[in-house]
Write a structure and sequence with these properties.
Number of domains: 2
CATH class of the largest domain: Alpha Beta
CATH architecture of the largest domain: 2-Layer Sandwich
Number of strands: 5
CATH topology of the largest domain: S16 Ribosomal Protein, Chain: A
Largest sheet: 5 strands, mixed
Order of helices and strands: EEEEHEHHH
Distance between the termini: 87 Å
Number of helices: 4
Radius of gyration: 28 Å
Amino acid sequence: MSLKIRMTRGGTKKRPHYSIVVADSHSPRDGRFIQKIGYHNPLLPKDHADRLKLDIDVAKEWIKKGATPSERVHRFLADAGVLQPLKKHSPQKMQPKKKAQERAAAAAKAAADAAAAAAAPAAEGEAQA
């Protein structure tokens, strides 16, 4: 059994609020859970005290027992200082691949050759004058 710390949706249509729960990863999103450890109300302003309530000590205990938080709950716990923030982008993955680098190098070389060829006749014309 793998445990997740995640959010379950409540409220009416277009008026959501979320409970932060510990549940088995195989149970449905709004289904059975083991323990409720907090709530999140996204409709309140970000600086409102009741927007997010999370029992940090209980969350730490569940993480020690092997529960993995969902991405959103991980962000809440990172803001509270419990976990390290997730790294969003890998610079190596954002680099162009090998063929794209070869095409870029070839294009740069062609542009440099064209600039040198255009500069050579202009330099000869100035030398003759």
